[in-house]
Structure formats: structure tokens, C-alpha cells
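Example 118, ligand zinc ion.
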Amino acid sequence: MICSHTSCSREEKVWLPIDSNHKSEAALHPWCIHCGLVKNISDDNPKKIGYWINVLSSLSHRYSFTQCQKRLIYKELQSFDEFIDTYGTTGSSQIELFEKIVRKHCNINRNNIGTFIC
Ligand SMILES: [Zn+2]
């Protein structure tokens, strides 16, 4: 089951690097008092599952996916918490995962997938 996440109070926030690209820049991060997950506060914002389903739909028109390919990718996207629960996820980790899932089912160049993601 997915945690609904409740951020800790201001006093409980912890100092952590903002993201993996800015290891020297630390900031106070809230974390979830239920599961302990640290919230992503970088500019690298994650997108909701609806966004990724739109990208998948555009890709499938452009590259004529079969219904079966589409269904498999859709199912796999939904199996990852990163697309459903974006509290601690970054946009770039979603992109990486999305490309990996699509490429597992369709032979599309990574750069070509990238052009559908903005
Ligand atoms: Zn939580």
C-alpha cells in the first residue's frame, strides 16, 4: 500500500544535499513521519502518472505500438511507486525509468523517446 505521506514539522527537518547533481548544496528537507521517506525539494520535479500516460500515447501513435505493447508498458508504469507516489521522486529518475520500460517492450532509440518528454 502506498503511504499518503505527512511531512514532519519545521523543527524536525534534516540537512541533506539538494540532489545528486548538487552534492555540495545542502538544504533542510522535510521527511514523512509515517514511512521516513525524504521529500524531493530540488527543481527536478517529478510528474504525475497522467503525464507519462500521455507521453506513452504520443509515442504509440508515432511508432505504431500494438495494443499489447501499449498494455504491457502501461501495466509496468503503474507497478512502479515512482510514477504513482512522487513525494521523494525526482523528474530525472522518472525519465530514466520510463525510457527503460518503453525500451524493454519497443525498439526505440533513447533520444527519440526523449523528444516526447518535456
Ligand atoms: Zn510516507
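Summary: Residues 3, 5, 32, 34-35, 37 surround zinc ion (CB under 6 Å).
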